[in-house]
Write a structure and sequence with these properties.
Length: 250
C-alpha cells in the first residue's frame, strides 16, 4: 500500500485453501523445519522468527494470491519478502506492504497483533494483490514523480485487488464521504503536475487533510474513468500514463 522507496470465486479459493491449512497446522509452534530461504523462492522470510507459527499460512496465502495475479499481469518473477515489523504496518490493521522494485515487494506483519490468523485470512490476500500491481507499473510507465501519478499508482493497485479477489474496498480507499470528493479533488488538482508531500497527501501527516486522502482520491478518479470506459480496468490500463485518467476540467 505504501510509497515506493522505502472475481469472488478467486477470493473463495484463497480463503478456502488457507482455512484448510489453518485448521490442520496453525496451532503448532516451535522452530520451522523448512530449509533456509534463497533467492529462487517466491516468498522469503527475513527477520520474522516471531511469525514461525503462521509461516505456512502466510506462505500459502501469498503464493495463492500470486498465482491468481499471474493469470492477469506479469508477476511470475516477483518475490515477496515477509518481515515482522509492527512499526511499518498500517495503523490498527496488523499488516502493511511496500513495492521495493519491479521484481520485489515487502509484506510487513505485526506478530503480536490480536487474532492474527484471522487477520491474515481476511486481509493478507488484498495487501498482496495491491502490492503485486505496483512492480508491473514500475516497469512502465515507471515510478511516479507528480501528485497525479501517485494518485493513479495507488488507486489502480486497489482497483486491481478488488477486481482480482472480489473483495470489499479497503479502508484507505474510503477515507472520506463521497460528498466531499469534489472538495479534495479541487485541492489536489492545482498540484497534479507538481512534486508533492507524500506523507501529507497519503497519510495526513502535518496537514488538515484526512488520513489516506490520496488513496481515496486515486481510487475514485479511476472508478469514474472505468465507469465511463467499461472496456478498461486495472489490468488493461496497468501501463497507461497517469494523464490518461486526468479528470476533466483539472
Amino acid at each position: 500500500m505504501q510509497r515506493f522507496t522505502d472475481t469472488c470465486c478467486a477470493s473463495f479459493v484463497v480463503i478456502t485453501t488457507a482455512l484448510t491449512l489453518l485448521l490442520s497446522a496453525c496451532g503448532g509452534g516451535g522452530e520451522s523445519t523448512a530449509p533456509p530461504p534463497d533467492e529462487t523462492q517466491r516468498v522469503i522470510f527475513e527477520d520474522a522468527a516471531a511469525l514461525t507459527p503462521q509461516r505456512e499460512l502466510i506462505t500459502m496465502l501469498i503464493e495463492d494470491t500470486m498465482n491468481l495475479a499471474a493469470g492477469q499481469i506479469p508477476v511470475a518473477t516477483v518475490t515477496a519478502v515477509v518481515r515482522d515489523d509492527a512499526a511499518r504496518t498500517i495503523p490498527d490493521y496488523g499488516l502493511g506492504g511496500y513495492a521495493l522494485s519491479p521484481q520485489r515487494i515487502e509484506i510487513v506483519i505485526d506478530a503480536e497483533f490480536p487474532d492474527l490468523e484471522n487477520v491474515l485470512l481476511e486481509r493478507l490476500p488484498y495487501i498482496v494483490a495491491h502490492e503485486l500491481h505496483h512492480p508491473v507499473r514500475l516497469r512502465e510507465p515507471g515510478i511516479y514523480e507528480s501528485l497525479l501519478e501517485a494518485l493513479i499508482f495507488e488507486g489502480m493497485a486497489d482497483h486491481f485487488a478488488v477486481e482480482l479477489l472480489g473483495s470489499d474496498l479497503a479502508p484507505w480507499s474510503q477515507a472520506f464521504p463521497e460528498s466531499e470528493t469534489a472538495t479534495y479533488l479541487s485541492l489536489a488538482a492545482p498540484q497534479f503536475d507538481q512534486t508533492f508531500d507524500f506523507e501529507a497527501w497519503f497519510f495526513g501527516i502535518g496537514t488538515s487533510l484526512p488520513q489516506w486522502t490520496g488513496y481515496t482520491l486515486g481510487y475514485r478518479i479511476l472508478r469514474d474513468y472505468f465507469d465511463a470506459n467499461p472496456q478498461e480496468n486495472a489490468v488493461t490500463s496497468i501501463s497507461a500514463p497517469a494523464d490518461q485518467f486526468r479528470p476533466s476540467g483539472t
